[in-house]
Amino acid sequence: MRIDKNFLNVILLSFGFMLVFTAFQTMGNIEKTVLVSINEETPDFTGEAYTSLAIIYAVFATCNWLAPSYISLTGPRFAIFTGACCYVLFIAIFLWPQKILLYAASCVLGTGAALIWTGHGQYLTENSDTDTMSRNSGIFWAIFQMSMFVGNLFVYFMFADSISAQKRSLVFGVLTGLAVLGACALAALRRTSRALVLGEAEGVSSADKELRIPDPAKGRPLLAAWNAFLDAFSLFFTPRMLLLSSTFVYTGLVLTFYSGVYSSCIGFTKALGDSRKSLIGLSGILIGVGEVTGGALFGIFASKVSRVCGAWSVIITGFCVHLFAFITIFLNLPNDSPVKDTDNLGFITSSTALALIGSLALGFGDACFNTQIYSLLGSIFVQNSAPAFALFKFCQSVAAAVSFAYSNVLGLYIQLLVLTISIVAGTATFCYVEYAVRREKMNSQSDSDLTAN
Asked: Which of 68, 338, 401, 451 is deepest in the core (most CB within 10 A)?
């Protein structure tokens, strides 16, 4: 039985990301409450979690413009490994909590995030074709989001009764170790074994379906890097990319909410009981359950869904699930829960079960959006996959940086209102672009059939 080497590349990429982000996503989930506990023990420490996360995503956004140039020189594999090392550094500094180190490491991580995610987009595209792009996107997302399980389950038991200095050190040490293992796995990524074969894509005639993504520049590397930057800039102002940018922005806003804000809301709501701090980990686990379920579901059935009714149906599913989550969170949790311990109640008596259902819904809906974005970008921007994924992450990270910045000052209800407005815009523009692409493909196939006859 012949083994598809490109599929093995996708699996290795997925597990490497899973290990690295087991460390980072767990840290993002607990950073606010952990830094508050450090401040209570050491008043001289004034590092702020939301500020750290805002720095990460602001630098991430800026460096996304430069990442395609870097990848044009090194290729996606080295960019992915470099980015993974930046994540290791960020997790490790929590073993020696210092404000200046926290913010400096946040800058380093922002740079690494641009490299690892842009490199991931190109590498995933290199190892996929029209028949496997949706499947590989779904499988990657399902395995990657398993990172929400292990770290958050560990935190759930470690912080069951308190967040002591000894427990924090153990958690940080374990998370650093996992990030190192992930970086080692990503260092083992192999070259793509064959040319990328795609069907109708943007700028591709029906007679020219075999495309190979360019190898790293050998002759004139600086010129290649400059051209990659210009390609990214030009691509950003194309009609389709401008329309999709509203979808990208929404994924950044909801990323901030489920990865940093919502779990803090649960941990700060006293009405959820004395075990509310441990619920932070349980919330993260259920977000992961939703992410993995959505990724696996749309990975297994991606080709059938796309053939029958298109990716828009998955996006509409995510839209409905997220609206359900926003409504239940609005009713269940108090307005001041994102920033401090509160005795206030929501519009109903705060319910632990309803809060955790909200976590599950946030994860599942996020998988709906992200799997379809990866699939669409990998299909229609195959010749510009690095710039396309860089622009996706640029818009997403700008939105995340802004969102983390206002999370310090805006109440829960205003944040939910912003999310509701942005999901409506993002869903509408994605469905329009996806429909236009699908219609062009059908028309092109009809023309090819007529020519053949």
From this structure: 68
Cα-Cα-Cα-Cα dihedral sign, residues 408, 19, 153, 7: positive
Distance CA 219, CA 212 (A): 18
Quick one: pLDDT at residue 370? 87
| Coil, helix or strand at residue 132 | coil
Burial of 438 (0-12, 13-18, 19+ CB in 10 A): middle
Provide the token pair at 31.
């950073």
3-state secondary structure of 15: helix
- E strand or H helix that includes residue 211: strand 210-211
What angle do helix axes 99-126 and 49-63 make, rounded to 10 degrees?
40
Average of per-residue pLDDT across 397-423: 89
Structure tokens at 307: 């053939």
Closest CA relative to residue 252, chosen from 104, 406, 127: 406
The encoded tokens of residue 391 equal 């622009």
**SS3 of residue 196 by DSSP:** strand
What pLDDT does 193 receive?
A: 62
> Measured in whole angstroms, how far is the alpha carbon of residue 126 from the centre of its chain?
20
DSSP alpha helix (H) spans, 269-334: 276-300, 302-308, 312-332
Counted residue by residue, the chain has a size of 453
Q: Angle at the Cα of 249 (from 244 to 254), degrees rounded to 5?
A: 130
Longest dimension (CA), the chain: 79
| Residue 274 CB-density burial (10 A; 0-12 exposed, 13-18 middle, 19+ buried) | exposed
CB 386 within 8 A of CB 228: yes
84 contacts 179 by C-beta, under 8 angstroms: yes
